[in-house]
């Protein structure tokens, strides 16, 4: 009972902090406040988010399972991994969670350049295009820019979410050289479900857009 009550607040906080990510995506892609205010607010939230999300992760790291987001209990298992040349002292609540998390870390380490290319280049191109538009110019039509953003990211996160079990057969040390706090907020397992669903949604809507 105690474990449940002690984890209810971190789970809620983690979920609320995670919601900033879809909020930034809505601001970038739908521009509900108009072009300039939406993009500027999105960039501000994206840049500022880590200053709240990362301390949250570091505070809860020893208490929450990095894989499932549940309480680790009295005898947590070590699931430490490298993250941007630092040791991340991740914990897991069971052997299954630990093995899945380490497999994920090995796979991410193996495909790091591809994932970085598929995520960071589209974000940079999209924001550069938006900046040109804000300045009154025109580079790529907004509709096309949206797909140049969504399709590579959908392939990256969707691919990661289905292919990470290949990491079980890898011997390289696990290393997650991405903003790892974003994966902690819901737990990696739940985040991968978001990746699967959003990846599928974006790819299907892209195919429909191409056809009609
Ligand atoms: Zn767990």
Description:
The chain is mainly alpha-helical. It has one domain (2-211). The protein contains 7 helices and 4 strands. The protein has helices spanning 2-18, 20-30, 35-60, 95-134, 142-163, 181-184, 188-211, and strands at 77-78, 81-83, 86-88, 91-92. The strands form 2 sheets. The protein has a two-stranded antiparallel ribbon with strand order 1-4. The protein has a two-stranded antiparallel sheet with strand order 2-3. Helix 1 packs antiparallel against helix 3, helix 2 (20-30) packs antiparallel against helix 3 (35-60) and helix 5 crosses helix 7. The radius of gyration is 18 Å and the shape is globular. The N and C termini lie far apart (54 Å). The mean pLDDT is 95. It binds zinc ion. Residues 65, 67-68, 70, 92-94, 97 line the site of zinc ion.
Task: State the gist of this model.
This protein has seven helices and four strands; from the N terminus they run H-H-H-E-E-E-E-H-H-H-H.
């Amino acid at each position: 009972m105690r474990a449940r009550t002690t984890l209810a607040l971190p789970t809620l906080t983690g979920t609320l902090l995670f919601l900033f990510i879809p909020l930034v995506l809505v601001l970038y892609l739908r521009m509900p406040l108009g072009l300039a205010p939406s993009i500027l607010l999105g960039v501000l939230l994206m840049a500022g988010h880590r200053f709240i999300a990362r301390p949250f992760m570091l505070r809860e790291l020893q208490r929450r399972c990095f894989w499932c987001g549940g309480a680790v209990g009295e005898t947590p298992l070590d699931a430490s991994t490298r993250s941007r040349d630092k040791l991340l002292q991740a914990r897991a609540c069971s052997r299954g969670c630990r093995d899945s998390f380490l497999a994920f870390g090995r796979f991410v380490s193996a495909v790091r350049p591809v994932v970085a290319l598929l995520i960071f280049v589209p974000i940079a191109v999209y924001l550069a295009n938006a900046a040109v538009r804000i300045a009154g110019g025109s580079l790529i039509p907004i509709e096309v820019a949206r797909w140049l953003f969504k399709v590579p990211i959908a392939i990256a996160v969707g691919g990661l979410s289905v292919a990470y079990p290949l990491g079980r057969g890898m011997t390289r040390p696990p290393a997650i050289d991405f903003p790892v706090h974003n994966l902690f907020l819901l737990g990696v397992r739940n985040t991968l479900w978001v990746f699967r669903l959003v990846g599928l949604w974006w790819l299907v809507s892209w195919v429909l857009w191409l056809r009609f």
